[in-house]
Write a sequence for this structure.
């Protein structure tokens, strides 16, 4: 990854993101999620349940990482980003990333108290491809 646009293109081409939080005992906890609904600069926005274990963990400890990968027939590529998560209840951002099918999970719609947005802000990352790994700071990407 040389540019942020290459990073965004790679992430948007995936179907799943692995999101890690830290539990009360300091252990990492992973969860598969849909890819971010919005990417803006170093920020990645996910929708989830306010009542979920992961959301509760982020309210206590904002440290997080996300991992995206593509396992092709002859090539494996992955990107890990580390940073922090904010749990957002702001109706403007909730409306912005809301999708019609979300009503299946949040019967009260955008204002459902169990619907929230996780805003992940990346600080650094690590890219793996073709047997090579490279760490980077987000501000290093063009």
């Amino acid at each position: 990854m040389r540019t942020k646009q290459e990073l965004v293109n790679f992430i948007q081409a995936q179907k799943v993101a692995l999101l890690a939080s830290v539990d009360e005992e300091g252990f990492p906890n992973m969860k598969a999620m849909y890819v971010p609904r919005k990417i803006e600069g170093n920020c990645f926005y996910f929708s989830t349940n306010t009542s979920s274990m992961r959301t509760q963990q982020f309210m206590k400890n904002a440290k997080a990482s996300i991992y995206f990968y593509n396992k092709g027939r002859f090539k494996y590529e992955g990107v890990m980003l580390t940073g922090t998560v904010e749990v957002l209840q702001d109706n403007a951002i909730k409306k912005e990333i809301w999708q019609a099918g979300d009503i299946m999970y949040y019967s009260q719609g955008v204002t459902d108290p169990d619907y929230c947005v996780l805003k992940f802000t990346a600080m650094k990352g690590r890219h793996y491809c073709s047997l090579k790994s490279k760490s980077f700071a987000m501000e290093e990407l063009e």
Remarks:
- The beta strands are 16-22, 28-34, 38-40, 43-49, 63-71, 76-88, 115-129, 132-137.
- The radius of gyration is 15 Å.
- The first strand starts at residue 16 and ends at 22.
